[in-house]
Amino acid sequence: MGNTSQDFKSPQEILEAFSKKTNELMNGFAADQWSEMMKEFTHAWNSLSAEAMNNPSKWMEIWGKYQQENMNLWLKLIDIQDNKPLIKPAPGDRRFNAKEWQENPIFSYTKQSYLLASEVLMQTVERIDLDEKHQKRLKFYTRYFIDAMSPANFVHTNPEAMRLAIETKGQSLIDGLKNLLVDMEKGRISMTDESAFVLGKNLAITPGAVVYQNHLFQLIQYKPTTENVLDRPLVIVPPSINKFYILDLQPENSFVKYAVDQGNTVFLISWVNPDESLKDVMWDDYITDGVLKAFDVVKEITGAKKINTVSWCVGGTILATALAVMHAKKTQGLIASATFFTTMLDFAEPGDLGVFIDESGISQRESQLKYTSVLSGKDLALAFSMLRANDLIWSYVVSNYLKGQTPPPFDILYWNSDSTNMPAKMYSFYIRNMYLENKLSQPNALTMCDVPINLSAIKTPSYFLSTIDDHIAPWKSTFVGTELFSGHVEFVLGASGHIAGVINPASKNKRNYWIEGELGKGSDHWYNTAKSQPGSWWTHWTAWLKKRGGAEIPALQQLGNEHYPVLEDAPGSYVKRRIDNN
Fold this sequence. Notes:
Layout: H1 11-29, H2 31-54, H3 56-78, H4 100-103, H5 105-127, H6 132-148, H7 159-167, H8 171-186, E1 208-213, E2 217-222, E3 228-230, E4 234-237, H9 255-261, E5 266-271, H10 283-302, E6 307-312, H11 314-328, E7 335-341, H12 359-372, E8 374-375, H13 377-386, H14 389-402, H15 411-417, E9 422-423, H16 424-436, E10 447-448, E11 451-452, E12 462-467, H17 475-479, H18 481-484, E13 489-494, E14 512-515, H19 523-529, E15 531-534, H20 538-546, E16 552-554, E17 568-569
Parallel strand pairs: 4-5, 4-6, 6-7, 7-12, 12-13
Antiparallel strand pairs: 1-2, 1-17, 2-5, 3-16, 8-9, 10-11, 13-14, 14-15
Helix pairs in contact: 1-8, 2-3, 2-6, 3-5, 5-6, 8-14, 10-11, 12-16
């Protein structure tokens, strides 16, 4: 487990050991990102130097003001009667909430000096003459650098951590060091008390069974909770880069349980967490051996002539391509409807994720994948965390390591830490053809399963759910999907972000959503003509689905059938494989 209090002879040794291990941890977590950040800085500051030579007055104004404000800050430090801050944190910035940041002159100066330097760095970035894409990348990495250098992130300059260390006689730092050593073994920062959750015990507990499996997925069939069900079963296609149980957390916020309780026969694809043996698996395999195979099994078990589908994020992109393949092969009649949660089909505006996407970065990653065979789920998780670094990285560095606290149990954060790998060839196909070249939105620009892909040929009635604060799949980008299909489309915009906006149980009656905007004239026009409704969009979706659910029939009394017997209880074994245990 690491050092104990008996291993240290003095508080100074504790601080030195703590600082050393913290540096080792962060270097291990973010080596690639740090290298990328420094590359962007070098490029930007070379541009800045050239501009400064040609137009020095443009930069003298910024730096002159910074020097004057720094001087004013020094004068305030000397004048103990003037404690009015020269600069304040942005609204919502919780890093400097402790009273010492305001009341102690040294810490107040440290905070304000940091904020002034941050401000001048961002002002400088704003004035550098770069194209839009490079400007966004520079702003992102500059902000990441600024956030990483916050005095709140270091034990010697964090008054709360120092006070706690004194009050506990160093025990908080010893506990923090233990937390740090555990996380170094995991290769990631703990965001929740992971000992509080066990899949199948208090997460993913909706009753059901695995009725089919192959090298890519297990198919789960859930037990009905109603006497009668709609005769068109519901098949859920979750993302392949996350575990499915975000849709089946605990009973009170489980979308799966809700769908079952609404009188649906629910099946769900549980993707395997791929290792190097699946390095050659392609996008096509996720269609043929994944989605289409699941449809065949569901049809044979239920005898249904039509199937309804639900998908989320990358799962929606996979489902859309499967539908395009089915339309090209004239088998689209099987699908009665398709629901897409926060799904990108047009990648022209990828939002914050765009900072990670360029030719040189992708080529570098592909070179690494020749040796690793799979894109590590830990790398994917870190990239997503970097988009909200203060909330998802630095706040945990402070609480877990500097203060020695154990994070409280939180089901969504447990799921968030349970990352999955991505096969090398699938990653390369996905990132290049969709994010980099945006070919999926172009008719017949891609061939999958030996047929050209044309999303505009899809006439399946579709329900698109986006969320207004989504930083992973921006709602205006996902809205474009409504303009690519040629069938009936319903677009709904939920409140909150990529996760909380989707997992918004109807029983809690929280937030709001927008409906009935006018389609066909762009996202802004849709929003300006839409109606806001209180509560969860789940009830709206249920009413929409029931119109396409078919007739009511008696629920099946057994799971699976003779050809597809029960293999094991839900949630199955594929979902339980964690990267930490590989």
